Amino acid sequence: MKIAVLSGKGGTGKTTVSNNLAALLPDATLIDCDVEEPNSHIFMNPEINLEEDVQVCFPVINEENCIHCRKCATFCNYNAIIASSNMTLPMKEICHDCGGCALVCEYDAINYEYRRIGKIFSGNSRFSTKLVYGSLKTGELSGVKIINRLKEITKDDPLVILDSPPGTSCSTVATLEGCDYALIVTEPTPFGVSDMKMVVEMLKEMKIPFAVVINKAGLGDNEVFEYCRSENLKIMGEFPFDQNIAQAYAVGKLAIEVNSEIRNSYYALWERIQNKVEALYGNK
Amino acid sequence: MILALCSTGKELQSRVDERFGRTAFFLFYNTDTAESIVIENSAKEAKGGAGALAVQQLVDNHAELLIAPEVGPQALEALNKFKIPAYKQGVVTTVQDAIKAWENKTLDSIKDPGNKGLHKA
What we know:
The complex is a heterodimer of chains A (284) and B (121). With 284 residues, chain A is of the alpha/beta class. Helices cover 36% and strands 27% of the residues of chain A. Chain A contains 11 helices and 11 strands. A 9-stranded mixed beta sheet of chain A has the order 3-6-7-2-8-1-9-10-11, with helices on both faces. In chain A, strand 10, helix 8 and strand 11 (235-240) form a beta-alpha-beta unit. In chain A, helix 1 packs across helix 11 (260-281) and helix 5 (144-152) packs parallel to helix 6. Chain A is elongated. The relative contact order of chain A is 0.20. The model of chain A has no long low-confidence stretch (mean pLDDT 93). Chain B has 121 residues and is of the alpha/beta class. Helices cover 24% and strands 21% of the residues of chain B. Chain B has helices at 50-60, 73-81, 95-103; strands spanning 2-7, 25-30, 35-40, 65-68, 86-88. The model of chain B has no long low-confidence stretch (mean pLDDT 91). The A-B interface holds A 73, 78-80, 82-84, 87, 89, 91, 93-94, 96, 141-144, 169-171 and B 43, 46-50, 52-53, 55-56, 59-60, 74, 77-78, 81-82, 119-121.
């Protein structure tokens, strides 16, 4: 079972919800897919037992073979190859590593070289949950390849919770691909609702069933509740804004460690998710 | 010599555009014949690599020199490779003024890249 936790807007509590859930479930694997700014390891404090480089390819022109036919430049959807009648110039930082240019080249003039864009880590957390996460090198464009690698090394794990990157970019789509269910974490503020709407669109497009969790309830206004009602979105959990929990978070502690009521709420949330997923897919 | 300029419109009297990769039009001015052609910038709505696609259009139209507000690091590298020197358009208003300023040799060359583009993965 693969469950993605996402939000649209940063700072709504994706990490809070995904980490609290994962810490409750001994068999779970938590993937921190926010490779630009991973932070789950601060709470899960894993003992790292696997570290691996992630590399991407970029094209290099073999000048002896290239006749500057420009097919590769015309083909490239990302504008990563510029070509004139006497020069073909790949732009390695724009390249998305799709491998298409070598396929369209009829003169065997394109080779690929590798460069490292980041790392992945895996280990057992201070709860019995496993944590895997990655980090993208500063200045690199896309963490998709790292996210895909994180998912690859956990593909046989029975229960995977994916802490998604904020927003609706390629990284979020890569996180969602193959997920059975999604939880949108939102906060009752105008920005929370506005960014959540984009995520709702994305999930509908990707045909991934989802429910909503309201974090920091009690703050802000009622717009999020009205929106959920008008769109018929199920609110599966509500966590109040709580100074003590925020303080615990600031020193790397999870809500379930400091508040037994919240711990019970997370158990209840998990039961609702499980029931829902079983109703959708059978016992998985 | 063919100059490439970033323009908001199709005339020599049009205002210069404040963007390079996402300029509305490229105006190519031939200093030998005083003729100009204008193309719509196909990189204007590009999701990524707008600077590179802009350079491709300069190359396709045989530009020998670029006058632009600023140029990002990757586009500047590409311009260097294709031997198209870049000059800063400065505080001119119209494309025609920019051409005059270049002819009067009052434009500075662009040696350092400006801000990075916003290309997203």
